[in-house]
Amino acid sequence: MHDKIAVLKYFLKPQTFDEYPVNWKDIFGNRKKLYVEIGFGSGEYMAALAKENPDINFVGFETSLTALYKAQINFYKNNIKNARVIQGDARLLIRELFPSGSISKLIVNFPCPWPKKRHKERRIFIESFILTLADVLRKGGTIELATDVDWYAQEVYDNFSKSEFFEAQEIIENFNRPIKTKYELKWDKEGRNKYLFIAKKVKDYKVLRILEGVSEMPHKNINSIDIDKLKDLKDKKFQEGNKTFVVNNVYEDMINDRYLLKVVSSDDDFIQQYYVAIYKKTNSWLVKLDSVTIPYRTPAVKFSVYKIAELIEEI
Ligand SMILES: C[S@@+](CC[C@H](N)C(=O)[O-])C[C@H]1O[C@@H](n2cnc3c(N)ncnc32)[C@H](O)[C@@H]1O
Q1: Where on this chain does substrate bind (predicted)?
Q2: What are the DSSP calls for 72-136, one per residue?
Q3: Which atom of ligand 1 is found nearest the CA of 184?
């Protein structure tokens, strides 16, 4: 039931460029078109493009914090105002943070191809992400992949060719773009082959998103807690539909009269790690998300807070 309510709430929310899930107009201060880069590394490609194209806004995704740091220094030094960076797995965040039809171009330069079969799911252009792109790209919008790995270019070409939502263009070998990335310069020096693949979105698709915007922090007041039940939560796993969470550890903070639970939750493939705090109040206990960690308040995160409160309450 909870699941259905969450999903319904999402669909009832207005989904225009200005509103849910992220107000890009307010972030950039204008409504210019959006280009997104995944895995920008040091950010020199995005910085050069952003500088050359002041009429376009750029959003870059990286898993590496160092990469974010370097890119932001680059933007600052070059007075670049039309680029922003976000840390995290782009495949999930792009689905959650962009409304339908809001991205004009997606750029991926020299991603790791994850050659081992057991790492296949780490590749960028997996089936679920191609469906996300069929939602978030505007019709006529493009994806652009540059790679030095021939079989990977072919695999991505095949994946997009199979999709009814995209028109795949022939792979261009040893392309020459005016701006080169750090990896590209390295591979050029070594004389490696390079491949450029472009696909155009031709048909809309609607993916299911799991975030619900900036909703209230989940919390619950309970009269008293059972310490044994609380300590017993360590290493326990809970599941309800596609929401799962595990309590990795239970810490006692005697100075602040509270307990902290380290939790890992997942909504399908969206995994987050955070703390749930249990505070002693004058006549009760408060179970809430700890403010040091700020997970997206997904159904699984809410489920973890309410379930923990239910399980530790002394009856
Ligand atoms: C091989 S480097 C290429 C860097 C840069 N594009 C270049 O051409 O010089 C790939 C980058 O992608 C980032 N990356 C890999 N998977 C990612 C994902 N799912 N979301 C965001 N960034 C990712 C890595 O952290 C790494 O910095």
Answers
A1: 116, 148, 181-184
A2: HHHHHHTT--SEEEEES-HHHHHHHHS-TT-EEEEEEES-----SGGGGGGSTT-HHHHHHHHHH
A3: 8
Q: Kindly give the confidence (pLDDT) of every residue in the chain, 315 residues in length, as a single tens digit, with 9 standing for 90 and above.
A: 333 333 333 333 333 444 456 789 989 999 999 999 999 999 999 999 999 999 999 999 999 999 999 999 999 999 999 999 998 889 989 998 999 999 999 999 999 999 999 999 899 999 999 999 999 999 999 999 999 999 999 999 999 999 999 999 999 999 999 999 999 999 999 999 999 999 999 999 999 887 755 566 789 999 999 999 999 999 999 999 999 999 999 999 888 889 999 999 998 878 889 999 999 999 999 999 998 887 888 889 999 999 999 999 988
- Residue 172 burial (C-beta neighbours within 10 Å; 0-12, 13-18, 19+): middle
Give the C-alpha separation, 71 to 51, whole Å. Answer: 13
**How far apart are the CA of 68 and the centre of ligand 1, in A?**
11
Q: Write the DSSP assignment of 272-300 as a string of letters.
A: EEEEEEEEE-SSSEEEEE-TTS-----HH
Is 184 flagged in the annotation as binding? yes
**From 37, 40, 182, mutation site for ligand 1 pocket: most ligand atoms within 8 A of C-beta:** 40
* Domain chopping of the chain, boundaries: 12-201, 219-312
Known binder of ligand: residue 212? no
Name the CATH superfamily for 12-201. Answer: Vaccinia Virus protein VP39 (3.40.50.150)
> What's the 163 CA to ligand 1 centre distance in angstroms?
24
200 is known to lie in a ligand binding site? no
* Å from CA of 266 to ligand 1 middle: 23
Show the tokens assigned to 30.
């204008």
SS3 content of the chain, % helix, strand, coil (to 5): 30, 30, 35
